[in-house]
Amino acid sequence: MMQPTTDKSSIDSLLEKLGEYFADMPASELMNPNVLTMSKDRTLWHTKELMRIRKISGVPIVDQKRRLIGLVSIEDIIVALENELIGERIEKHMTRRVVTVAPDETLTSVVAKFNRYRFGRFPVVNSEGTLLGIITKKDIIGAILERFRLMYVHDERRKSALEGTTEWFEKSLISGDYVEKDSANFAFNIDYTDVDMVGIGAAELKKFLIARGLDEQSVRRISIATYEAEVNVVIHSGSEGTIYCWMENGKTVKVRVEDTGKGIENIEQALKEGYSTASDHVRELGFGAGMGLSNMRRCSDKMMVMSEVGKGVVVEMIFEISGGKKDDSERSN
Amino acid sequence: MTVSDLTDKCGFTLVAGNSLEAEVNSGYVGDLLSDVMGNAPSNCVWMTVQSHQNIIAVASIVNASVILLCNGRSFEDETLEKAKSTGVNLMKTPLSSFEACMKLFEAGFKG
Fold first, then answer.
1. Which residues in chain A have their CB less than 8 angstroms from residue B18's CB?
2. Which of B20, B35, B48, B61 is the best residue to mutate to test the A interface, defined by the most A CB atoms within 10 Å of its own CB?
3. What domain range includes position A76?
């Protein structure tokens, strides 16, 4: 006998698991803003064609100011086909009492709505009733995967790590293993708080990587990312810090930069390009463009930031090395 | 083009020449260090108005061939010292960054 099918689809159980980690993500980040709409004056046949061609299962109906006035779902189309009403105007047959989501509603609340109403999609509507986007389960998974590209710890691991303060500094953010700092191939103590000194650590790491025979392109992105992390320690932490680097089997380089300083108040905000809390003095020197973390993200293949106010920051970055050996044309200056 | 071509053909003043034969095959203008970090290509001439010593670290990490200080500004002493120890080339000009780009263009520089 075959097993009876489980009552929970795989996408639902995936959502449930991921939901725990991204509980606070707002609908505005989960939604697809490029939503196809129609006016109430078209016919259901038009809606059916749009759905068929674009492979979508529901179309929000909006007025001229893009305010949501209804929704036509695939169920509405089936009913219309059965009753031979497909040539009639949308206005007469659309669902008018649409369950919507506000842009600041959290993932937890959105998932609860999916479970409660069993609809395939929820339009996202602001307080004026204007349609901002639409959320399907697929959009949620997509938004979460995008978030994973920059692995960002804001979950149970983070909480438990922070409770035992020392623990946090002993474990890898990405793999969860204990970090063997003694085994690092490179370690540099950022033992200065003077902005003028910034870059020494990154320059040392660069020298080390070149000596290890890493290709120029990889050296460049690792040095840039490390420089930015070093800048952050010096400008923002108010403490000293350390740069560690491990070269794993010649294919992966891991860099970890940690400090025990002020910490980042709002990681979400800090990760946005252009956001900076740098002082005017430091800005005059050309720092504080708000691009540090995004440079680090761009240069690395995986990156994770963990911080708690008053306890410090740990940044871990993984670099996959594609090029292999350095070429011999490297300049000797 | 090489670093010494920039002095000969564009009239920029050489302040610290540590590797004059270094190739220059692109350019970048920027005063925000992270912007330069993120976007300046290798072997470029980096035009900026920043003169303090942090520019040396930036230039050596992105492999800029030369820093061209614009608007008639002068390098700080610490910057000159660091340039010497790291081998970064330094030049200056009374021109603005934009005018310096035009000068490069007139000299046939194809970045």
1. 333
2. B61
3. 10-147
User: Cβ of A295 under 8 Å from any chain B Cβ?
Assistant: yes
Q: Confidence class of residue A177 from pLDDT cuts 50, 70 and 90? A: low
Q: How many CB atoms lie within 10 A of CB A12?
A: 15
Name the nearest CA neighbour of A61 among A93, A30, A85, A105.
Answer: A93
Q: Domain of residue B63: give its range.
A: 3-106
Report strand pairing: A121-125 vs A68-73: unpaired
**Where is the domain boundary, A147, A180, A213?**
A147
Residue B111 resides in a domain: no
Task: State how far the Cα of A203 lies from the Cα of B3, in Å rounded to an integer.
Answer: 22
Query: Considering only CA atoms, which of B94, B110, B98, B96 is closest in space to residue B44?
Result: B110
In angstroms, the CA B46 to CA B27 distance is 6
Q: Which amino acid is at A204?
A: E
* Single-letter amino acid, residue A6: T
Same domain for A46 and A133: yes
User: Do B56 and A294 lie within an 8 Å CB cutoff?
Assistant: no
- Residues A244, A290, single domain; the answer is yes
Are the beta carbons of A200 and B57 separated by less than 8 Å? Answer: yes
Q: For chain B, how many structural domains are there in total?
A: 1
Work out the average pLDDT over B20-47. 93
Q: Domain with A185 in it: what CATH number?
A: 3.30.565.10
- Give the ipTM of the model, two decimals please: 0.76
Residue count of chain A = 333
Rounded to an integer, the average pLDDT of A199-217 is 92
Spatial separation of the C-alpha atoms in residues A246 and A258, rounded to whole Å: 14
On chain B, the residues whose CB falls within 8 A of the CB of A223 are 61
For residue B69, the SS3 value is strand
The token pair at B107 is: 């000299």
Distance CA A293, CA A285 (A): 18
Collapsing DSSP states into helix, strand and coil, what is residue A201? helix
**How far apart are the C-alpha atoms of A128 and A50, rounded to whole Å?**
27
Name the pairing type of β-strands A241-248 and A121-125: unpaired
Q: In sequence order, what are the residues at sequence separation of 6 or more whose Cβ sits closer than 8 angstroms to the Cβ of residue A236?
A: A261, A262, A264, A277, A278, A313
- Averaged over A38-65, what is the pLDDT? 92
DSSP letter, residue B41: P
Q: What mean pLDDT value characterizes chain A?
A: 82
**Is A298 near chain B, with CB under 8 Å?**
yes
